[in-house]
Structures are given as C-alpha cells and as structure tokens.
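Researcher: I'm preparing a figure for a lab meeting and need a structural model of a single chain. I don't have an experimental structure, so a prediction will have to do for now. The sequence is pasted below. Please return the structure as tokens so I can convert it later.
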Amino acid sequence: PAAPPGSLSGSPTEFPPNVPSHVHAPVRKKAKRSVGASYSENVDRSISGEAQSKERFVETVQGVSSARAEYRRAGEEARGSNPRQSEPHLDTSTFALSGDSAHNQAMVHWSGHNSSVILILTKLNDFNLGAVTESSLWRSTDYGSTYTKLNDKVGSRTVLMYLYVCPTNKRKIMMLSDPEVESAVLISSDEGASFDKHPINFNILSLLFHPAQEDWILAYSHDSKLYSSMDFGRKWQLVHDNVMPGRFYWYDYVDPIFELVHDPLLSEGSHDLLAPRCTEGNRQYLFPGHVDTNSLVVQDEYVFTQVTKSGRASYFVSYMRESFKRMKLPKYCLPKDMHIISTDEKQVFAAVQEWNQNNTYSLYISDSPGVYFILSLENLRTNRGPAGNLLVDFYKVEGINGMYLANKLVDYHIKTFITYNKGQTWALLPAPSTDVAGNNLDCILPFCSLHLHLEMSENPYTSGPITSKKSVPGIIVATGNIGTELSSTNLGMFITSDAGNSWRQIFDEEHNIWFLDNGGALLAVLHAATPIRHFRRKKWDRHSFSLAPLYVDGVLMEPESDNHIITFFGHFSHRSEWQLIKIDYKGLFNRRCMDGDYQTWYLHNKGELCVMGEKQIYMKRRPGNRCMLAQDYSRIYSSEPCLCTAYDFECDYGWERQADGKCSPAFWFNPNGAAKSCSSSQSFLNSTGYRKVLSNNCKEAGRNVYSPRREPCRPRAPRGLRLSTSQGELSAAVGSNVTFTVYLDDGDSLRTSIQLDFGDGIKITYSNLSRTDDGIKHIYRTTGIYRVTASAENSQGSDSSTLFLHITSPVERVYLSAPIVAIRGKEANLTAVVWPSHPRTLTFFWWFDNSSEPIITLEGSISYTFQKEGKNKVTVQVASGSTVMQDSKVITVKEFFRSLLLSFSPALDEHNPDIPEWREDIGRVVSGVPVDQLLVSLYPGLPTTAELFILPDEHTSSEHNRRSEEALERISDIFVTALNQGLVQFELKTDIRIIVYMTQQTLAPLVDSNSIHSGSAMLMLLSVVFVGVAAFFIYKFKRKIPWIHVQTEDSHEKEPEVISTVGQNDSMSKVKLSEFPSQKELMEKELEARTRGIYNLPIIMFYAVSKAAVVEVLGAFVKVKVEISLVINSLLQVKAIQDLTQVKSV
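Model: Understood. Here is the structure written out token by token.
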C-alpha cells in the first residue's frame, strides 16, 4: 500500500471533527455532498492493523438539475427497447432516495457472498453546528433495484451516526446513534431485517472487530477509555482508561494490547504497553526506557514499538508474539523516523528516514523475524496526506510474486522504478512506442521513461491512480506521464499486459478503472468535474447508463462474485436526491469460457524467464472472446524452479552489493563475529554474505555457494564482551532489583565461564554464557557508585567489561550551612548538608549572587571569596538522579566585624526541633532589635549554639574604619560583660526564660534561672557595681594571692580574644562547624560541668532592661578600665582551683 499502515515515529494523524482517526481523509471537490463506505474489502483490510472505519466519504460536484425517483431498464444506448441478446448490452435501473435531498453524507454496505442485500445510511451533517441533525436508513433485497426506508424500525426520532459490519460475518451489523440524542447501539443479525437497541453509558468513537471471533469487539470512547464486548455489543466492560487513540489492537487472538496516554503527573515520557492481565506486580519492563507516544503498531504476526533515549531512537519488534528484540539497521543508518509499509509474506518492508535525509526515505527489507534489515532502495518519494499522515510512493503489484513499483528521487527528478526480485535490482519503466493517437514517441531509456502515480485512493469508491488485481496477474493500469520525470500535468492512462515489460497508452485523460468479471473485463469512468452518463469497458466500447448526466460519487461492486452487478452512486444536482443506478453487465458476454478460450503467456523480466527463482506460465483469455471467466479457474498453468543465481539472494546483514553483483562485508562489520547458535549446539550456520530472498523458489545445484554453511564450533578466545543493564540505565534506586545483561561478540560461549563482580563485595560465576540469557539480578542496599565488572574466560583467553553504576536514593532535605557574615576578600566555608547521606552520588551546583553560571562540585563543601560588600545571596542545588533540591542563604559581607560564640540554658534544647525555620526565628528573638549591626546565627544540632555578629555601620567611610573598629571593640566588651552576667535572656514560652551565655568563656550558675524577675536600670547598675568593685579589688591585689599570681604571669596584660568562624586576617584561627565537638562529646562536657557546678550553655538577648540603660551603665566601667572580662577569664583558666568553695569565696 502507498500509505503505510503503521508509523513508529508518532507522526501526526489528526482528522476532521466527527471523523474517526482511522478513516481516510476526505477528497475535497466542489460540493458538500459525500458518500462513504463500509463494504467488505475495507473491513477485511482494517483487521490487520487499524480499527474499523466508521465513515468514508468524498465531497462531490455541485449539479444544476433536479430528479425524481424512477425505475427503468435500458439497453446499450438507453433507448428503452430490448436489444438483441447476441449484442453487448447493459441492463440498468435507477432509484432515487426520496425525501433525503438535503442529506449530504452516505454510508453504503453490500453484504457480499452473493447476498442481494444493500444497506445505505444517509445523513444531514450541519457543518455550521458540527453535528448530524437527520438520518435515514435504506435497505434493498434485490441487488439495488428497489430500496425500503427503515426509520420506523430503528426509531423515528433516532439519529444514526455510523454503520459497522462484522468482517467475519457480514450478516451482523451494528449502528451507533447520536449520543447527543440517545447513546445506544442497534444490532442486527439478519442483514438489517430487524434491529435490537441496547443503551450504553459511554460515547463510542471507533470500533475494532476481532479477526476470528465474530462477537468480540473493542470500543474506544471519546474520553480515552477502552471497552470490550464478547456478545457483539450487547454488554460492555471497561478494559482500561487513558488509552492512546488508534493504538489498540487484538494482540494474541485473546487479549488486546494498547498504548497508554502520557500522564505528566506521573513522570516525563511515561508511556507503557499493557494487556488486560498485566498489573504492576507482573509487568515486565522490556525496553531501555519508556515507549514513545504513538509508536505501537500491530500488524499480522508483528508488534512494533519505538523507544527514544539520549536523542536517538531504537526500534523493537516481536514476531509471533514472542519476546521483543531490537531491530538491527546498518550501523550508520542512524534513523530519524521509521514507518512500517508492509508485513506481507512474513517479512517487513520499512520506510526509514536516515540522518542525512529530509524529504525522502529509504526502503529497508528484513528477514522473517523482522530483526535484521538491509537497504533495498534509497530516496523514496514521500508526501503528507490531508491528515498529516506519511504517504510513501511504493506499490506492490498484485498477482506477481516479488514485483514492486517505487518512485525515487534521482538528481532532483522523481522517476518510477520497477523490481521483479523483491528489491534486489531496480530498473526504469520503458515508455510506449506510440501515444493514444498512434503517433510515434521518441522516448529512449535512460534519458526518457514512463512515470506513474502510485498514491492510494482516499475514496474507497474510486480506483485511485494505479490498479492491479491478484486474479489478473500481469495487468496494471495506472495514471502517469512520459518524460524525464514524474509530473502532475499532461497525464494519461497506461496499461501493461505483460507485467510491466511493455506499456501502451489507452486514454489521454484520467479515468477510474475497475476490474469486472474476475478480471475478464475493465470498466473505465472518466475522472471529470462535470456530469457524465457513459463508461467504457476493455476494447473500450462506450455504454450509456443514465438518460441525464450524473455527478458520479462512486462505484460499488461485490468482489469475486458471479452476479455481474455494479452500482453507481451520484446526483443530478446539489439539491437532488441520491441517485442509485444498478447496472447488470452480464449482457456484455455471450457465454461462459471453455478450455479453448484461453492461451498461455510467460512471465519474464526483459526476456529473462526465471523470475523469483522459477519459470511461470499463466493462462489468459484469448483476445476477442466475449465469454465469462469462471470464478475458480487457475491463472497459473505451470511452474518450474530455476537454478539459483546471485540475484536470487540478497546481501546478508552487514554485507553490501558491489558493482560486480557480489556481496562483501561493510567496513563496520566483522564477518567473523560470534555464532549465537553455538550457545546451544556444537555447530552453527556461518553466513556466506548472502541470504535467500523470501518466497524465492530457486534451487542450488550441487555445492551450496550462497546458502549458510554449517560449521563446527571451534574453541576461540572471548572477544567483544559487553556489560549493560537491561534498561540501559547507569543509575538505579537503592533497594531496587538491577538486571545485568552480558553479551559476547566472539568466542566459544559454551566453554566460556562468566564472572560478575557487583562492586559491593559480592561476586557470582556462571559456567557458560547461556546461563545468563535471562539476565543477572542484584539488589544494592546502600547508595554509592559501584564498579561492576564482567569477566569472560576460557582455555583460549579472557576478556572483561566494566561499568560504573550509581545507586541513589531520593534527596529528602538540603540545608546550606554558611556564616551569615563574611570578610570581603577572605575565603568563607560553605557546606551543603543532605538528608539522607549520599556518599559520592550527588552533584552540587553553587550559585553566587547574580552569576550566570554555577560552580559545580562533587563534594558538599566549598570555599568562596566574596569581593563585594553588602548582602550576597548563595544558592546550592543538589542533584541526585532526576531529583533536584536547593537551599539559599544571604551572607552579609563586611571589611571587618566582631563575633561572639553563644550558648543557652538547657531548657532551650528540650524545645529545639532542629529545623532551619526555628533557628531563624530564635536568631531574630536573640538579636532583639531589627538592626543590621547585630546578627545572630544558630547552628544545627544539639546542644543549641549560636554566634553573635557585631557589624560596623554600613555608612562608615574608609577613613573612619579605625575609629569604627574601636567602637566595635567597646560594643563587644559590653556584650561580653552582659553575657557573662546572665543579663541577656528571652522568654521562650510562658514561665520559660532562656539565658544566653558566652560559650567556653562563661561562669554559669549552678541552677537554671528560669524565674528571674525584671528590675530597673538602677537595680541592675548596683548589681554590676558590686560585682565590678569585687573584681577590681581582686585584680589590684592579685599578686598577693599565689594561685592567682601564677596564672596572671602567663596572661599578663593580655586582652580577651574573640573567636569567629571567619577570621579577620591570616593569623586568626578559623573555627569550622566540623571542628565542633560531637553531640556525645558535648553531652559529656555538659555532665562534667554540671558536676562541678558550671554550666556550659548557649545564646542571646538582653534581659528586660532597655539597651540604652545597659550601654550607659556598662560603658562607665569600660571608661575606668575595669577589665571585668579579663578577670573572669583568668579565673576560669586557673588550673590550681580544686575546691568550688574557693571559687565561691573569691
């Protein structure tokens, strides 16, 4: 067929509204009247790969006259008198479907099998409303002489939409009503004599009948659901929802197979193939990825599908419903698109668009299982139909084995080529020697030749531009032209009677051609835009079939029948009724043919009698005899096999035909590759570079030169060991079942042991490669990157293959640990903390401020230098497989700052959920005021710790930096004093107050002070004065106290240090999060501190005294140089203190 029945590429197949997706697109003419079909030939063709046609229609030409219903019989010239029976004549009768003049669409069915019943459904399709508003059902029981209207039988108010006929029992008919009025099916088992109505609760868009079971039907609804019925539509059950339109088939004569619609909520590209007994529990994942949209094709014994991964398409085939195998095209074909043209004779013809082709395709032919493909013809002409479907100029000649026609692009010209050996050799068509008028044509090959149009007719009631018939071998009638290339102008009709060896022109205008009398006669009707009333038959006698000119919409006849009746459909004018003209052409013949009425002819290819490996002699009727052919007479008189030649064989996969006709290996192919059959036997069939053309019947004489040779399996070292996963993925989820597959290109697979090291400490060994056919399954329990190694070894040598498998688990949470303040021009340490931990399997993307490109690392930490003061936003993205998560922080960058490490009273740990939001809120509470000069950052984990940052005024100029640093020192001293005295606290909850301390520099009270009450600034001042005087007294007399004197010598006149996570110069120590003690160590230190009466506690905010009062009071002590913090720090560092009572007394 010119239009490929199956596309694996998901090419667009959109159709007009209310027309099923599997219906041929309409042929547009000038009027809005059309006629459709559901006759037996179309139904039979559709069961191999398409759903049944609902409606086939063409639009016709507007007429000018009116007509009335009539019935009459006419002779050859329609004079009304009975002609003599010895002269060729026609018997005609006309019937008008009265009352349906407004109906502009029709569907016609002839039951066939010598049945006299014809059904016609006419409809008024209101194109403005986009709906059918009226319908009429007509039935004839006398081959179309008269019709009866059946509207009362189906319901006078019922609007019928579609007519279906069971392909295996044409007496069974199903009709669908308009769901807008009444959703129901009408079923007849007696060719429409009676109907039963069955309501349904869904709207049927298309039907697919079972190829063998007459009562089994699949129905596709408007809401993408697939239903099945086992009693011819009386009861329905849901098979599945979300099914792709037109991608459902009967799979194994029991179950359907279908493609699911992509659901974007599930995953990108999630397409699957399902059968009704398939569940998630028993589903097998057969392909290295998800099936592409609109790629499922089921045709005869083959199932095809396509998977695209990393921008490259792979194609898979299942033959005889067995396991899927990858289709093998030549290595550097690199297909962009593939369409299945034919699966006749148990092999696949495919049109493939290669990487360097744009408007053309190449023809590839497979072996019987449909796996290994070879090139037959390059640059086939293609075009798109009205619905966007791909049409390939490729035609199979009926009745002659191995004979095909194709249009090929050659040097920017489209030329027609013919093959007699299934694509092994192609040749141009010879042009006729004279035109239709007898004038000589000087058309010499290869400069001039005959070119034919090979498109398939989109209207089932017309013949299309080319016609051949199985019962008439050797005869082809086609539309074409003579010249250097195919043209759409100056067209004529050409015929061959010797299978394309010679041609002659019969008309200089386009005609529709039909075969009559089992091929014994030809009927030609002018393809015209004006009304006609004549047609011709072979020898092209002219016959009238209507008194008034008729716009012919189509011709219907029963194929392979002895009744010699054809029916013309048409109208006299745009507003007239449908005219049905019955023509009985039996009067064209005078008797039945006898043995003496036939002669023989030899099938040949330019004089070569051996065609497809045999000499065939056919019978045909002698010219001039007007006898009727018997339906069952044999066309083939005799057949004799020939000796095989090189062209009875095609080059095997990986081999190419050379100029001398011999096959030699392609540059990319190793002919000494592994013999796969050696895995199960002691010998194998070794290819000679040739494989016999399927259905070729030649015989090899003596020693087989071309056929594969059986050779013993010799010991060979393993070579070309390949290791992969069944899905082709190099990553898997932790805990999932990973299946590894091992392939060996060359070697003695029966005697080669295979060892697989999974990389996690587990190894497995197999005695030979055949034991790994089903794959090797393994489960990884932890995340990581594993080196998986396969080793093959035998007595002749060894080989190995390695892959690195990423085992991941989904990232649940990401936290960016970073200082909220950094020094300009100095490195800052940033860490991405991931839950759960993913060693060596993550990729980190670091985005800084407005950078256009990220910094990519495999580690979760990075050092970065900020060059600009102000607020800088940092974002880290963590990628694990297809999962990406991120976290962001704003870092304030300054020239200098001061910071204090803080701890809190233990009650805060009991209320710490350890989440970023909680830490941010506590930080704001601790800082106490919305001032940019004070920032507090809490660290994750327990016990709760934090860092207080004291920043300079952002308006400070560079010349005042020194003065600003001194101010920060004074403010820092004030905070140290306040923190050491427990003056910074906040209320967490009612009756729960949290005190903030200096970490590792603070004398904490023995008990938590949750009940401290507010006091005035004066009361606080007196307390501070008291402590200050005591400290001053001790300081002045410290040299007279031995245990104090020892310590002060080590720290004489030393200012207290402030430690920050980010140093201000190179000599300053940097405290990283990783340097903090673990939670266990902190707990041990805290218990030790509690035993000694010392609390080593966390963070923040001033007690309920105004900030101004605190600064005023504490500033007074700074001015008199009372170094309270130094004294307290000295006390903490005295190692000689053993008794707590001494500390208290001091």
